[in-house]
Amino acid sequence: MGWWGDLVGRVRGRAGDGPEPAPVPAAPTSTQIVEAVHAVERDVEGRVPAAVTARVHRIARVVEDMAPRLDRLGIGSRQAHTVVATATSYLPEAVGAYLRLPRDFADRRVVAQGKTSLMLLCDQLDLLGTTLSQISDAVSRQDARALVAHGQFLAEKFGTSSLEVPPGGPAVAS
Predict the structure, then answer these.
(1) How buried is 83 (Cβ within 10 angstroms: 0-12 exposed, 13-18 middle, 19+ buried)?
(2) pTM above the 0.85 mark?
(3) What letter does residue 96 receive in the DSSP assignment?
(4) Mean pLDDT score, 136-163
(5) DSSP secondary-structure letter at 18?
(6) Which residue from 37, 60, 69 is spatially nearest to 138, judged by alpha carbons?
(7) What pLDDT score does 145 carry?
């Protein structure tokens, strides 16, 4: 049966001859996202230099803070995707690649751009940490602007109060 027959069959409630499409996996929950970074924290404990451990912990704290707030970024948001991908893919893959190397090689042998694998990992972790911090700051600024706007609404609705915004706009940093 051709594509037209499949279409007509589906409209009439009959299954087509072809295989059913694979179901789309559900997006990870906040708990799963946080658990993914906690798994990386457990993996590095006692196995990497302190500089790596500190960077992984920094990333984990930001992910813990951001995971419950991802809905504020909107469905399909590039920023939300970055947070989820960092926790579930980028961070575990970077750390995993480093952990698969022999320690002496990873920490002392120059492999690219005049840097050791340890230096490259630290650079990658710094980039992830900085990116997540910027996303977190953007969400916090958005929440602060919403609070200011609500205060303006209340001041207009109920009269003069300390909620009024001075001329020139709110004092929320961008």
Answers:
(1) buried
(2) no
(3) H
(4) 80
(5) S
(6) 69
(7) 83
pLDDT digits (tens, 9 = 90+) for 5-57: 666 666 676 655 556 677 777 778 889 999 999 999 999 999 999 999 999 99
Label residue 77 by pLDDT band (50, 70, 90): confident
| Encoded amino acid at 122, one letter | C
In the predicted model, what is the mean pLDDT of the chain? 85
What's the CA gap between 121 and 132, in Å, rounded? Answer: 16
Cα 140 to Cα 1, 92, 99, 133, 174: the distances in Å are: 55, 26, 34, 10, 10
Which residue from 148, 95, 97, 160 is spatially nearest to 125, judged by alpha carbons?
Answer: 95
Contact 90, 114 (CB under 8 A): no
Q: State how far the alpha carbon of 151 is from the alpha carbons of 138, 154, 160, 166, in Å.
A: 20, 5, 11, 12
* Structure tokens given for 41: 């924290």
Q: Token pair for residue 67? A: 């995971």
Chain position carrying tokens 């120059």: 110
